[in-house]
Design a protein that fits this description.
Blueprint (H helix, E strand, L loop, with lengths): L1 H17 L9 H13 L3 H17 L6 H12 L4 H14 L35 E9 L9 E9 L13 E9 L2 E10 L7 E4 L12 E9 L4 E10 L25 E3 L2 E6 L23 H13 L3 H6 L9 H4 L9 E14 L3 E12 L4 E13 L2 E10 L1
Antiparallel strand pairs: 1-2, 2-5, 3-4, 3-6, 6-7, 8-9, 10-11, 11-12, 12-13
Protein name: NTF2-like N-terminal transpeptidase
Keywords: Signal
């Protein structure tokens, strides 16, 4: 009996000894196994906070595209670290990114799993039911001449009628992308924990002046809930050119002789140089960045627009448009003069007429029934343009 007890105790000790107390990022499997071991050794509340810390680090502490690459980058960041070190690192990242999170605070982000279990749970705080995303932008700061130095960008999740959705205790990954002339200039992330989210303060001093065209920028904000990612853009926002980031010109030492790389020096006249000929195979200057290209058929945008109008989800319909003639959302959705007067849309045919990376033309034939029961058959040509990689309806022509 004593021998059996000894073997049992020995087995338990051996099992405990095999469990890791630090991250092993040799590969994704060892990363997950070691994190599971570390998590299981913690009390329940600490487990939740540890998972939140890992989520903070994976989302905001590394730069990578896609979950697999993010996990690899996270592994490199925390390899060999123990729980206290990881919690401390997450505190630093949260503070640096302006996220209201602390390792010593109560759980606030819901049940986080960096290994990809995104299914809604019975009490999943990230399963926020919303119809669309709205954006409010306003200039802030003063450069001393009455011009702003930044833009405050505030996203809000709203229902189909455009009313803010109420929720708390969430941890919705919120991403801001800044573009000019279709070229992405910067990306920022934060967590939306409720619908009082403060948003992003985009400082003009963080935007390179050389990459801004016509002193205007475009922004796209996306908010990821458990079930859906909502996206909204604003186009042609004015910036204060005087506040943009301008590289510091290095001081030139006039006593030095400026030479081109590989130049031939004339010993009789050191100040004069003869440029060398570029050798075959030498690196050529990098080509300018190209605008982000859409990956979907433009007729999909028109189809979504018409379906949204038919179902009276006018916010979603407005979100896929960038047509100045439609004005504000209030004008667009007006129940008398706008699309708010539509009761039903019956689509007969949608075809892409022409498309290139920057624009497209789509023809659609459909019947529109207004709220008085009157039905009108329409043939419409929709013009679309590429806005940060998404097709947006920019014109609307009814053909006779």
């Amino acid at each position: 009996m004593k021998k059996f007890s000894f073997l049992l105790v020995f087995s338990l000790l051996l099992f405990t000894a095999c469990k890791k107390d630090h991250v092993d990022a040799t590969n994704t499997k060892t990363l997950q196994t070691s994190i599971n071991d570390m998590t299981s050794s913690l009390p329940t509340i600490k487990q939740i906070k540890f998972n939140e810390a890992l989520y903070i680090l994976k989302t905001f502490g590394v730069e990578a595209d896609g979950d697999i690459n993010e996990l690899k980058a996270l592994g490199k960041l925390i390899d060999g670290k123990k729980v206290p070190e990881i919690m401390s690192l997450a505190d630093e990242v949260a503070q640096k990114n302006g996220i209201e999170w602390a390792s010593t605070a109560p759980p606030s982000l819901g049940e986080m799993n960096i290994f990809g279990d995104d299914k809604a749970k019975e009490s999943d705080p990230n399963d926020v039911k919303a119809g669309a995303l709205s954006l409010v932008t306003r200039p802030t700061g003063d450069d001393g001449n009455g011009a702003p130095t930044a833009i405050q960008i505030i996203p809000r999740l709203v229902d189909a009628a455009g009313n803010p959705v109420s929720f708390t205790g969430a941890g919705l990954e919120t991403t801001l992308e800044v573009f000019s002339n279709g070229v992405r200039l910067s990306t920022a992330k934060n967590l939306m924990q409720d619908n009082n989210f403060k948003g992003f303060n985009l400082k003009f001093s963080s935007i390179p002046a050389a990459k801004v065209v016509d002193n205007k920028i475009d922004i796209t904000v996306s908010v990821k809930t458990t079930a859906k990612t909502f996206k909204m853009s604003k186009i042609g926002l004015d910036v204060n050119a005087a506040a943009l980031k301008v590289p510091v010109v290095p001081k030139t030492d006039t006593t030095d002789i400026s030479q081109q790389p590989g130049a031939v020096i004339d010993p009789n006249n050191p100040a004069a140089t003869v440029p060398s000929v570029t050798e075959p195979g030498a690196a050529t200057p990098a080509a300018p960045a190209t605008p982000k290209q859409p990956t979907t058929d433009p007729k999909n945008t028109v189809s979504k627009f018409l379906n949204s109008v038919s179902s009276q989800n006018l916010k979603a319909a407005y979100d896929v448009s960038n047509n100045p003639s439609w004005g504000s959302y209030e004008s667009f959705s007006n129940p008398t003069s706008g699309f708010g007067s539509v009761k039903n849309v019956s689509v007969k045919n949608i075809t892409t007429n022409a498309a290139n990376p920057n624009g497209a033309s789509v023809n659609a034939t459909y019947d529109v029934t207004d709220k008085n029961g009157k039905t009108t058959s329409l043939k419409v040509t929709f013009g679309l343009k590429n806005v940060n990689g998404d097709w947006k309806i920019s014109s609307y022509k009814i053909n006779q």
